[in-house]
Specification:
Blueprint: H1 4-13, H2 17-30, H3 33-46, H4 49-62, H5 67-79, H6 83-91, H7 100-113, H8 117-130, H9 135-147, H10 151-163, E1 168-169, E2 172-173, H11 174-184, H12 188-195, H13 205-217, H14 221-234, H15 241-251, H16 255-268, H17 273-285, H18 289-302, H19 307-319, H20 323-334, H21 341-353, H22 357-371, H23 375-388, H24 391-404, H25 409-419
Helix pairs in contact: 1-2, 3-4, 4-5, 5-6, 5-7, 6-7, 7-8, 8-9, 9-10, 10-11, 11-12, 11-13, 12-13, 13-14, 14-15, 15-16, 16-17, 17-18, 18-19, 19-20, 19-21, 20-21, 21-22, 22-23, 23-24, 24-25
């Protein structure tokens, strides 16, 4: 004869909720403790938390030293958002209990969700001291260190899990985790070796993307392009793949394909200022200044405080001879008490072109300490000093330049003419 617990589960399976409720009440009265415990586990897995809790509480009253009951009740409390109650249950599990190890893992997970990573690590390391070969412990440690970006430590525990015979755990492919961890730590050869081992059913878009990135880092550009294109075919809304594909084509100097990839990416993510800037850089190789203007202006509009984008736009404006526009662009950055030296240099070039010699001289002088050993900067400064009639400054900069570039005959001759 079937138990009331079995009857209830059968009724739930058939959607007979009223009948199942009655059978549950009879099960609490009539079924033996083992049957009730199994019912609670089944109900918990089905999402009937209140009913599972009632059974565990009933059994705990009868078996107050049974740590597994407290651990199970703690998990229900966590699911209900009652973390304080969960910690109370977990703290009551005796260290000598067979359930103590599981209580440490549950506590670690709870502290991790609350961002208390030091306590999380303490709990997991205690679990590791108790059961260093327990796969659940190895997996939990690997996942924890992966989460907090301590990838070398994560790698240690993932490898230990594989050595223990677990290619996957908790529906996670461990080779994939290892590949991602190795890639994040800059060990790309090892990363690619593991990423290639990922089973087809675990080939997520993230895994495919990281495979392509790793191939790109290793100089396997054509393989990376294939990986990125396969990813787009599987999920053309995966926005991160387009900048990477554009970068790969650029490495092969296939700029038309690179621009197309960037433009397709902008169709997916029209608010990506970095991709607009990348598209502008690609357009420069194709001699398309109108596209450069369009993309740089949009990138700057999306992130006006981004100094790298602003400088790329500034360089473009200088090349186009649009010096008034460049001064307007750089004005907010000059208001900074400690502006970027490159901003000063770019400002100086436009001020010089507009014959604002005093302002240009101040900007060149402000940039000099940062670029005093940069031949390109010094040559521009020499030209400005000649134009502005700063003779003493000119001789000083010329001497330093000739020391740096003694093979520049033009500058050597100029210095000789000034010192004769």
């Amino acid at each position: 004869m079937a138990s009331f617990s079995e009857k209830m589960l059968d009724e739930l399976d058939k959607g007979q909720l009223k009948e199942a409720k009655k059978s549950f009440a009879w099960a609490l009265r009539k079924d033996d403790d083992d049957t009730l415990f199994n019912l609670a586990q089944q109900l918990y897995s089905l999402g009937f938390l209140k009913q599972a809790q009632r059974i565990y509480e009933k059994l705990l009253a009868k078996y107050p030293d049974e740590g597994e009951l407290r651990t199970n009740l703690a998990e229900i409390a966590i699911d209900n958002g009652d973390n304080d109650q969960a910690l109370t249950y977990l703290s009551e599990v005796d260290k000598g209990s067979p359930a103590y190890l599981q209580s440490l893992l549950v506590a670690a997970d709870l502290y991790q969700t609350e961002g208390e990573f030091e306590v999380t690590e303490e709990k997991l390391q205690e679990a590791y001291r108790i059961a260093p070969d327990q796969p659940a412990v190895l997996y939990a440690l690997g996942e924890f260190y992966y989460l907090i970006k301590q990838f070398d430590k994560a790698i240690f525990y993932y490898i230990a899990l594989i050595k223990a015979g677990y290619a996957e755990f908790d529906k996670v492919d461990i080779a994939g985790r290892l590949g991602m961890a190795y890639a994040q730590s800059g060990q790309f050869d090892q990363a690619l070796a593991y990423l290639r081992q990922v089973a087809p059913e675990y080939q997520t878009t993230d895994i495919r993307f990281q495979t392509g990135l790793t191939q790109l880092h290793l100089g396997k550009v054509k393989e990376a392009i294939t990986s990125f294109k396969d990813l787009i075919e599987a999920d053309d809304q995966y926005a991160s793949v387009y900048p990477a594909l554009a970068q790969a084509y650029s490495k092969l100097h296939q700029y038309e394909k690179a621009l197309k990839a960037a433009q397709e990416g902008l169709g997916v993510d029209q608010y990506n200022e970095q991709l607009f800037a990348q598209a502008a850089a690609i357009a420069s190789h194709l001699d398309q200044p109108k596209l450069m203007q369009k993309y740089l202006a949009r990138a700057h509009e999306l992130d006006p405080e981004n100094i790298r984008i602003a400088l790329a736009y500034s360089n473009f404006l200088i090349q186009q001879g649009r010096h008034e526009d460049n001064l307007k662009l750089l004005a907010p950055f000059i208001e900074d008490h400690d502006p970027d030296p490159q901003v000063e240099w770019n400002l100086a070039q436009s001020q010089q072109a507009l014959e604002h010699y005093q302002a240009a001289g101040q900007a060149y002088d402000a940039a000099l300490s940062s670029f005093q050993d940069d031949p390109d900067f010094l040559r521009q400064l020499i030209g400005f000093d000649q134009e502005a009639g700063r003779s003493e400054q000119l001789k000083k900069i010329l001497r330093h330049y000739v020391d740096l570039v003694p093979t520049d005959d033009e500058m050597v001759d100029l210095l000789d003419s000034l010192t004769d």
